[in-house]
Amino acid sequence: MIKVMFVCLGNICRSPLAEAVFAQRVKEQNLEGKLEVESCGTAAYHIGEKPDPRTITVAQHHHIPIDHRAQQLKKEHFNTFDYLIVMDESNASNAKEIEPANATSIMYKLRDFDTENEGSDVADPWFGDEDGFEVCYQTVDRCVDEFLHFLVKKHNLTSA
Ligand code: 4NP
Which residue of the set 52, 88, 114, 124 is catalytic? Predict the structure, then answer.
């Protein structure tokens, strides 16, 4: 089983959306027995909370089921997950502050898998308006597809 953790700051906007889109694509491709996904935030602000209502709205609009409670990134995740996929540079530096010396997980930025502006940040839509959540969805959707392709190829995953 390949385990993937999407990481943002608050775990109520970007990473729960990435988790939900990834889970849906995994299901559609009959890869559920091969891949597991979760999400978390580097901050403790929203632990236990549901995603932001604007995240839920944009997910529903795109027929992506979303049901999540926020959790915080922990040291142990660096060994229990194969991939930690952060949304931006500040997530990466916050994560690296608690990275244990024996970490086994590989860290990427989600937009390392983007076909547009590769390697850039997934902008935080939290402070903006609803439009920012649609932009976020489009970016996440594009990158999740590419990331899933990458995983299938790298680990020779086949549909159940
Ligand atoms: P996220 O967005 O990291 O994509 O979940 C944010 C959510 C909450 C806050 C910041 C970013 N906040 O400051 O509470």
Answer: 124
